[in-house]
Amino acid sequence: MVDAAKQSASEKPYLSIANIVKKFGDTTAVDGVTLDIQRKEIFALLGSSGCGKSTLLRMLAGMERPTSGQIILDGQDITKLAPYDRPINMMFQSYALFPHMSVADNIAFGLKQDKMPKGEIDARVAEMLDLVQMRKYANRKPYQLSGGQQQRVALARSLAKRPKLLLLDEPLGALDKKLRQQTQLELVNTLESVGVTCIMVTHDQEEAMTMATRIGIMSEGQLLQVGTPAEIYDYPNCRFTAEFIGDTNLFTGPVVVDEPDRVEIEAAELGGRIWIDHGITGPKGMQVWASIRPEDVRVDRDPVAAGPNAAKGSVAEIAYFGSYSVYHVKLGSGKVLKAMVPVNRWHEANLEPPTWGDQVYVSWRADMPVVLTR
Amino acid sequence: MNIQRLFKRLKPGRGAVISIPYFWLLLFFLVPFFIVLKISFAEQDLAIPPFTSLMNLEEGGLLHLTLNLGNFDFILSDDFYAKTYLSSLQTALFTTLMCLLLGYPIAYAIARTDPARRNVLLMLVMLPFWTSFLLRVYAWMGLLNENGLINSFLLAIGVINEPLMLFHNDFSLYLVMVYAYLPFMILPLFSHLVKMDGRLLEAASDLGAGPIKAFFTITLPLSKNGIIAGSMMVFIPAVGEFVIPELVGGPDTLMIGKVLWNEFFDNNNWPMAAAVATVMVLLLIVPIAFLHRFETRQLEGKGNE
């Protein structure tokens, strides 16, 4: 028993969050989250505002005490440790730099708390300034820096103590869009070069997809799905994830045929059946949803063979994005289906692109839809 | 430069708005001060007003200007005045320190409570202002008197056998001074503390600073301007305070306000009183000028670097 425990300890995840619950009065902000994080992972908690992701982060930092549950970091139970006793540092949303201290003093602050000798502090601060390329701004005050520079100082400050776990709260939320995209990769490179284990909270799916090795989707205090960006996009496990990450078309209906090689769903809104040749089997009559990504939908001007995974409709809206267009096709039921069509689709077929009001036929391959049961 | 001029021309009302406080200061501070300064150079006279005029047009069109430096000479030579000024500054300084030590935790606590309760607490701080200042000092007299409420109560329950000397000494002086000036310390401190971003303390805590360390490294430095403002609001009026030392202070309490009163009303020596007041204003201007320089240096620091 002891041996078994020891053995599993060595394989244990670096950070283990076990059944964490946080209640504020009657409202449950975090509702039983269990999550394991590996060393050097960059994990993104993604969700809309009020989903509990920030509360979860604050519990990791120690600023909120969980109502129940346990947090174990590198074999140490830190659930009840005060923030200043945790080997965890956080980069705050809009940075919370100390306005009365210079850049160097901000970075040195945490080191001074550890009573590090002055020479070592100076060396570490210099190292951190180089890491974020802010050496020549060492003596500036935070208000004398641009948003991007403040972000880098905040990063340097949170990395200075070499934390076992780095928390990033909306790390790029305060930057404008262009700077944000540029900073995303820069930030990932810095984090990877330091080799720090990292949990970030964001509401920006693009930011999560670009930066994280794994993503956890949160909604209403619960962790709905955890996976790599590709897994989450290609195999969402619920409607929330499917709709939250990227864009999708959802159809609902009962399972009418469940054969080894396919399932068929009677989708009223489509006015026909959806065939799916992979994935789950389910009892007949079970209510399920089929998610079809816009880029998987094919748009034709000529009628396609009648049958499953196809429908007729009229173009209600066209959004032009340069290399592709998104067609909003209104089906007979009134449901609008989005289809992403590459611009050269029509040129290659030597066809005039369909325009508003034109009748078109939409279809997709049977391996494209993802079946969702919740 | 041209743009600036254009800007000024576009807003003709701006100058007018800015001029109001300047006009106010000119009319009610600078002009009276120069009148007092003028009187301080005159000599006592048995006339109405009871001092000589500085300028006399003599026969032959000779304008005679008489500046009497005797009052200032007397203030400088008689160490009674030096002692009194020193004692006034000391009393004001000690009052300010006590107000700061008491007021800071109060202001901090009010700033940290939730906004609904905060207004009630602020109201309570300001509530004493609804009663006349003089009345409140008299109320203290009734409390601290030899046969006042406190002594009567303690005698009645048998804690003491004879009345405590709570009145007409340094204890009663500082007690009432601190009581009277405490709100002037709390309010500016509160307005600075309430603006402070709570996440800065979280950041300090996250970086390993315990609550006490975080207070001294973050909260205290960031409330520096509030401390300066509150201290000025207490210190400056406390130096010239007359009513409290007169009513509850000890017989040997030396305060410049009392000296002023004596010169003006008892000795009817207006020039002497004016000279005493002039020196006091100069004594107060020094710390204000120091503060002002300190603040401008900070502002310049923001522009430079």
UniProtKB/TrEMBL annotation, chain A:
Q: Could you tell me what reaction this enzyme catalyses?
A: ATP + H2O + polyamine-[polyamine-binding protein]Side 1 = ADP + phosphate + polyamineSide 2 + [polyamine-binding protein]Side 1
Q: Does the keyword ATP-binding apply?
A: yes
The keyword Cytoplasm belongs to this UniProt entry's keyword annotation: no
Annotated ABC transporter domain ranges read 15-245
EC number(s) stated in the UniProt entry for this protein: 7.6.2.11
Q: Which PROSITE patterns match?
A: ABC_TRANSPORTER_1 (PS00211), ABC_TRANSPORTER_2 (PS50893)
Q: Which InterPro entries match?
A: AAA+_ATPase (IPR003593), ABC_SmlMolc_Importer (IPR050093), ABC_transporter-like_ATP-bd (IPR003439), ABC_transporter-like_CS (IPR017871), Mo/tungstate-bd_C_term_dom (IPR008995), P-loop_NTPase (IPR027417), PotA-like (IPR005893), Transp-assoc_OB_typ2 (IPR013611)
Highest taxon listed in the record's lineage: Bacteria
Q: Describe its function.
A: Part of the ABC transporter complex PotABCD involved in spermidine/putrescine import. Responsible for energy coupling to the transport system.
Record's subunit section: The complex is composed of two ATP-binding proteins (PotA), two transmembrane proteins (PotB and PotC) and a solute-binding protein (PotD).
Identify the PANTHER family for this entry.
PUTRESCINE TRANSPORT ATP-BINDING PROTEIN POTG, SPERMIDINE/PUTRESCINE IMPORT ATP-BINDING PROTEIN POTA
Name the record gives this protein: Spermidine/putrescine import ATP-binding protein PotA
This chain's source organism reads: Vogesella alkaliphila
- What gene is this protein a product of? potA-1
TrEMBL record, chain B:
**By its UniProt entry, which Pfam families does this protein fall under?**
BPD_transp_1 (PF00528)
Note the topology in the membrane.
Multi-pass membrane protein
| Keyword terms of this UniProt record | Cell membrane, Membrane, Transmembrane, Transmembrane helix, Transport
Q: Does the entry feature the keyword Iron, yes or no?
A: no
Q: What InterPro entries does its record include?
A: MetI-like (IPR000515), MetI-like_sf (IPR035906)
Q: Where is the ABC transmembrane type-1 domain?
A: 85-291
**Annotated TM spans:** 21-41, 89-108, 120-141, 171-190, 270-291
Q: Does the keyword DNA damage apply?
A: no
Q: Which family, according to the similarity comment?
A: Belongs to the binding-protein-dependent transport system permease family. CysTW subfamily.
Protein's UniProt name: Putrescine/spermidine ABC transporter permease
In its UniProt entry, the species of origin is given as: Vogesella alkaliphila
Starting at the broadest rank, the lineage of the source organism is: Bacteria, Pseudomonadati, Pseudomonadota, Betaproteobacteria, Neisseriales
